[in-house]
Amino acid sequence: MSMTVQKRLMRELAEVERNAAAEFDLGSSEDNLLVWTAVLRPPAPSLYQGGVFHVSIRVPNTYPMTPPAVKFSTRICHPNIHWKSGDVCLDILKTAWSPAWTLRTLCLALLVLLDNPEVDSPLNCDAGNLLRCGDKRGYKSLVTMLTALHATPASASSSPN
Amino acid sequence: MASSAYSDFDVIAQEERVRDEIAASSELVSDPLPTSVLLDEYKENKDAFRDKLKDVTSKYDSFRRVRGDGNCFYRAFGFALLQQILHRGTEEQARKLYQQAVASKALLVAQGYTEYTIEDFYDSYVEVIALATGFPKPPAAYDYSTGIPVPVQQDANSEPPKQLPWPLTAQERALRESNLLAIFRDDPVASAVVYYLRLLTAGHFKTNAEFFQGFIEDGLTVSEFCAREVEVMARECEQVHIVALSAALDVPVRVVYTDSSDSTSQATEINFQEEGTAAPTVSLLYRPGHYDILYAR
User: Fold this and answer.
1) Which CATH number goes with the domain that contains A121?
2) Cβ contact (<8 Å) for A99 and B233?
3) What strands, in cross-sheet order, belong to the sheet with B290-296?
4) Of the partner residues A69, A84, A96, the one whose CB lies closest to the CB of residue B228
5) Range of the domain at A85
6) Residue among B147, B148, B231 whose CB faces A100 most closely
7) N or C: which end of chain B has fewer CB within 10 A?
8) Does B72 qualify as catalytic in the annotation?
């Protein structure tokens, strides 16, 4: 790991520990600073409220010049998140990444994405199609049901891969 | 729609391979080359573009190629600026550039940037400025082993402690220039310097938002424009970015434009920030979509 990445991630870690957020936990793996996990708890009035979503984050050696790679490891029903792989389609994870952002900013962006799906770039066509044809009620009940099934502490743990 | 056969992790690995291949095939900043190389490169062209290049070779005898990765303007500007300071700058200009570099982080933080996210880029920028000007690098504001801020006395207006032996001897100039070139060719420091120049550009846009709003299209606010077009690596720049960066650092920039429009056989020169006082003029060659560094005869 390069010194630049290490310095930067140490500071991000210190910042996260000093300044915890209610909507998510974020931390690095004990033995590898390049592997992080976020646990998102979307607050009301999110469609996903009550759900607890684990997200694995891998930081490239060129970070923060290039964005981290992100995967949901809890199943989630969302137009821009792949149902099976957990891959996320979000511009800031690709070409619009700014090196002045952090893994913490990223978690906030993921929470914003949950309730602001971009239906024109779907990774989950079924969810995307419901929204595209204006079936908000159907979409809402599908999300609520699948969140209860796969992402609540009571649900049997079901994760992609 | 993305295929599920490849994950983001695979894509990132692939992108890293592509980046490495590009890195292996072209330097971030090349050695100086005679401008006649450009005429050879376009010897098939019989149009106004070649006439303009001829015009360029009559006024500028050499140039340096800068990698065409979307950051070429900032990279060309940064290296050419420090080289101008070394070769033609006065002690006063060197001090001004150094002092504004040291003061710049506080200005960016006042613009809303989070200090610890811009700290590394600032450190790299101040490091190259210190290297070129000979002023000492201020101590880091963080203990890197713990990530905890340590209090540092930083007063941008205080006199730098070391007096310069200025003008520099030819030997000292050559030494500093070769060190600068090594840094500008070495990632991640080179990228960090480029990114800090982007932040300084964005900071100037935001400080003068009222003025720049008129130049921004698509109904974006100045902040949105910066987030989309300035603060992202590899996003190409337009003239308004040059206006902002040359004004931010008070550095005069001359861009020599070459293209194939046949209204004139002469390359058009545009001077940005003609009254700049922080450095001698930085000259850049523009070919459509790309900037390189030019040296006058």
Assistant:
1) 3.10.110.10
2) yes
3) B33-34, B60-64, B290-296, B282-287, B253-257, B268-272
4) A96
5) 3-150
6) B231
7) C
8) yes
